[in-house]
Write a structure and sequence with these properties.
With 64 residues, the chain is α+β, with helices and mostly antiparallel strands. The chain has one domain. Helix content is 52%, strand content 12%. The chain has 3 helices and 2 strands, in the order βααβα. The chain has a two-stranded antiparallel ribbon. The protein is globular, with a radius of gyration of 12 Å. The chain starts with a strand and ends with a helix. The mean pLDDT is 88.
Amino acid sequence: MDMETVRLVQIVEKLAPELVPFLTERELNLNIVLRDGLAWLEPEDAMEIVQQSICEHQREVLLQ
């Protein structure tokens, strides 16, 4: 099990490029830690990661 840190933009561009225009620059630059690395991700995994990242980003903005 190799952990890998990638930016969200790498995940989106590889598995769901149609989402790029809907994400902010800050969201696209979020660091994501993947337990098994980028090579093992499926498109549905990418969607879940994007959803969770957006929720987390919005929570941070609300707290500031």
